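Re: your question from the hallway

Yes, I did run it. Sequences:
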Amino acid sequence: MLKALQLEPEKCTGCLQCEMACSFENEGVFNPSKSRIKVFNFHDEGRFAPYTCSQCAEAWCMHACPVEAIVINPKTGAKDVLESVCVGCKVCTIACPFGTVNYNADTGKVAKCDLCGGDPACASACPTGAITYVDAEHTGLERMRAHAAQSIPKA
Amino acid sequence: MQHVVIGAGPSGVIAAETLRKLQPKASVTLVGDEPEAPYSRMAIPYFLVKQIAEQGTHLRKTADHFAKREIKVLQKRVEGLDRAARQLTLAGGDKLAYDNLLIATGSRPVSPPIPGIDLPGVTSCWTLADARRIAATAKPGARVVLMGAGFIGCIILEALAKSGATLTVVEMEGRMVPRMMNDTAGNMIKDWCQEHGVTVHTSTKVNAIEKHGNALRVVLNSGATVDVDLVVSATGVRPNIELVKDSGIATDQGILVNRQMQTNDPSIFAAGDVAQGIDFSTGEYSVQAIQPTAADHGQLAARNMAGQKGALHRGCVNMNVLDTLGLISSSFGLWMGKAGGDSAELLNRERYRYLNLQFEDDVLVGATSLGLTQHVGVLRGLIQTKTRLGAWKDKLVADPTRIMEAYLASTQAVGFNAGVLK
Amino acid sequence: MAWQRKLLRVDLTAGTCRAEPLNMEWALKYIGQRGLATKYLCEEIDPKVDALSPGNKMIMATGPLTGTMAATGGRYSVITKSPFTGAIACSNSGGFIGAEMKAAGWDMVIFEGKSPKPVYLLLENDNAQLLSAEGLWGKSVWETDDIIHTTHQDPLLRVACVGRSAEEGCLYAGVVNDKHRAAGRSGVGTVMASKNLKAVAIRGTLGVGGVRDFKAFMNAAAVGKKVLKDNAVTGIGLPTMGTQVLMNVINEVGAMPTRNMREVQFEGAAKISAEAMHEPRESDGKPNLVTNAACFGCTIACGRISTIDPQHYTISNKPEYRGASGGLEYEAAWALGCDTGVDDLDALTYANFLCNEDGFDPISFGSTVAAAMELFDIGAITTKDTGGIEMRFGSAEALTKAAELVATGVGFGKDLGLGSKRLTAKYGHPDLSMTVKGQEFPAYDPRGIQGMGLTYATSNRGACHLRSYTVSSEIMGVPVKTDPLSTEGKPELVKAFQDATAAVDSTGLCVFTTFAWTLADIAPQVDAACEGGWTPETMLEAGERIWNLERQFNLDAGLTAADDTLPKRLLKDAAKTGPAKGQVNRLHEMLPQYYEIRGWTADGRPTADTLKRLDV
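Structure:
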């Protein structure tokens, strides 16, 4: 069964362990600025929201890619960026309506969450259970997904 | 069922693949007139600077991609359309019958009416063949004039500058990328280019191109001349609608389609640069000629060709992203604003940072950015979901950089830390 | 080598920024942050320099674990000579800017000289620029933070800055980062403002690499996190209640300094406690506490985010204060509450917001207000001196008005901004200042916790709980329980805590981890990250080295053993209630022995042998 990242902002304390884990996994250094998951800080409200790609079924990024550099990973269902194919045209960064594909000027490529190939480092690093990797059928996830699906009208 | 798709660009390829997925048994034929594997024009600039080989421009990477999917690929020009017989005539006289036809013939550069435009050494930059020609000439030390600083001009601009050529850009309008950027942003891009060693003339026309020894002399309307080795013309594109001329298919700027991407002939559809589809923001039918729209069109047309119910086009958000010598810009939807709406703007000229948001009531309808690379797509999301921002609108007016928070707060449940509070 | 091995030197007089390699020989002896920056300061300034003159320097320094995945690895410190105490100042802060500096490629930034005009430093990886802050001068911390963000259109810039209090010469102004985290004590913000440096804005996208052994480090960090999670204090107490978990505990043991330390128990403690912060209020049904919040990399998350009752008198006409911001920590709640006799939780929260908004230390501020209240109580000052404020113990209005005046340096706020030592001296009652070396006490009465008396008296930066938190042992039994009313073994305890804390403060980790961690938990993380062969023993030795270096700075600055003392009240006036009833602090029983085990002379100077043994 496919699994997915479940994000529960109400459990987040904003510590950024997830961002460090993500950047360490993907870049080999602790570098939140290169993390594919980001924690947004609602300072005036005292709220935090971790957010990353939901691997949406619509796969806007994948369809917008002109060179087939974004592909579905058959094992995880994630939409993976193939760095060797990506030319850095950034069309996917404007196509993703969730803002979760970002251009990295240092590499000249885009980066997005790939679920770490099935063992997401952010979920392992989260000290409060705000990020978990669960069966895709899980109820809490449905809410998130349902929202993602409804919110953007199909083209 | 016989589906025929004319045009092997992104729209055509996605349509063919989608048709195959939806109708495993139907016949799907993809006809393209270039002697190449289907490739992406978006990738040409990267080919020009040798960041990728030609293969890197290909839309699909494996040689047997189409064969494996039983999509027949013909490299032939379509010369005739016989609607009554539901039949195409291919170059050489072969006939090709269809039940459903998708016209995804794209667009091509317009050739401005300038004396000397046909001289050798003057080229557009549209096809792989053009790119090979440019790459052969635009070497370090070469002198190049780029006519037109629109979107296409600007994506080549970077490649030309990086090739080491001495580059002069001539743009008719008063700013760069005039159909994507407002005055502020368009002029900041111009300043940026000049700072990076590219000469830019805006509000300037090329009056003539003349032969001058082994080189070319470009005569500007100011009277000034520029001697160069190469002139690249990028003064705009126009839909390839010649095929349907006199066929009774309704056209305007492009081929007119309804919300099913269907023309006035129920068995003929159009998609991509050639189609005049709905613009999400204006509700009007226009040619957008951008990659994401081509992809959306192709998919939607295929679903309708396969007979899916309710696959209605709700309109594409016009959007562009551009990298001009490292300065990244983007614009979305009604970036120029809407009458009666209001806006928020942040500008820092020294640092080349700009963010402009356009609202109608408390809904984001358009945006322009310079120097923004993080979460930029959420601008599309906010526009396309017509998210009511409520109190977040004022927060965005105070600080437009908080777009991602505005999106999350308006669309997701962002809870408190229930862990410590009973 | 989790150091970046690079520091930035900013000459404010000349307006230049240049990179230098980090002195790795010193790093291997002083670790980083507190220790290493103190070494730089000692080498570079005359300890006798006027702290507010261009000759003083100010160092913002991270530790080798700052910016790594080690739990709480986000700390940085501001090291300078204090204008408040004349001693070494080292104020530690969490939030996010420390890790950002590290990710930008820098271990520390040294500011020297004085800019002719207000400036702020913009540091984006290798790109360091001094930009005009003339438009920021006169703005609060919160406004400055917002303006810098919108000017640069980068939500991820991290900003540390001074508020109006520092500009107006408040001697206990801090440097506030991320809007409500502060290097709060000893007037480090006053030094920053004296240099015409308004803010430091940092964006780092290079990251922290170069960990000596990544695999070992990730393992050690994971083991450490588990220890924190499984510990009752760091796993449950601090996240749920914050440091405010102590309010009722300390009150019950009779060590709650109350009304300028006249008493040792506060009858209103329950109303301003952690538990009270959880209680829904009448007006809008919401509790004071909105959430807990973590600093960078912190798996404890003790931070408090609070709101003020929108109908409270302090903000009923000020909607701009209705949002959430940094709430009361225990020390602040004590100083603003118990010490002034005010039990109005919303008034305290409001005063705390103002401390953050304009960058002044709530401990010194609250204690100074308490001293002013006592002066008022005995008639030494009147409303003529206070500009009309009835400075009565227990008056929330007096407290909040005082906070507004100190924030902007107006009227009586100027006097209050000098701290209690100068205030009480000005009005003829120096004994009413509850300070050591001119810095106010925090929230543990040394009559009820004897070890804290020695802690305060010998702290290198003046009265402070964070130099050796023997409360841990004397009250909470960590790592071993000792009797708070006994002086026996306290010199050894204080020395051990002082040395260990100096080491922890030099790593980039938060000292709150030591509720659960010992150096045996910390050393493996440091060792996996850094070369130098770090063990609990070598770390403790480095801590002792640092302590002696700080001591030497103070002695060279002109301080003497005579400054290692407590106010008369704590030595002479017995506690009136509670378990410590009848007790005074018996510093004289501890101090000589402390000097001895430190290897210092009877007048508190490190002997030549000691300095040699430690290679100071």
